[in-house]
Amino acid sequence: MLEGFNLKSWKFHEQRLLEGANWKLAFDAHMDFYHLPILHKETFGPTISNLAQYYFQGPHQRLGLMSENSVEQDSLQTLKSIPPNEWPLEPMLFGEWIIFPNVSLNCFKAGERIMVISQVLPGDTPESSITIQTFLTEKPTNDDTLPQVQELVEFIGKVVGEEDLAMSRKQQAALSSGLIPEVLFGRNEYGLQEYYRWLGGCLSAHDDQELNMLFKNGGHIS
Ligand SMILES: [Fe+2]
Known about the structure:
Layout: E1 11-20, H1 23-28, H2 36-39, E2 52-57, E3 60-65, H3 76-79, H4 89-92, E4 96-99, E5 103-110, E6 112-122, E7 129-137, H5 146-176, H6 190-204, H7 208-216
Antiparallel strand pairs: 1-7, 2-3, 3-4, 4-5, 5-6, 6-7
This protein binds fe (ii) ion.
């Protein structure tokens, strides 16, 4: 499915480094749309849907956003009224693509189609991480599209840097206090449940044979 992007023809635009809390906390936000209208009410707005549609391929996943607009999002709600052979490809490439265990691809449209590749890497301590944001454009920018592209780059940098990663630092502080014995992901956070099931499976594998069995058996060692 990722081949549909034809990434080899995309153009590099800009790369940024963002500091965050523990890498898993920093990456959690990429697999959750539940927080969108709350944490991002000043940026994405309070009316954005918080309903993710999850598509899984082994440990990898893609999040689509439930929406009434099939041109912007490939919501199953709207695609059901269109014959499958007429489904448009472009909206099907929208959403958040999670490449297990720490890479996210996210598409936006602002003048040009823009992709943000986020690589979340552990920092020097368990409490720190670095998110490498790489911005690509599908076509070279020109005088007309460059301002829109740059505006989106600044916007996404703000959303992730000042909202998502700032919140993950607060989560880190709360969890580090030891006052919360455990965290339970809800039914609207199914992607996170699956992600940690796979991560737990990988960490509990004793050797390559068990790892191979894990991937062969959909995340179960036995
Ligand atoms: Fe977010």
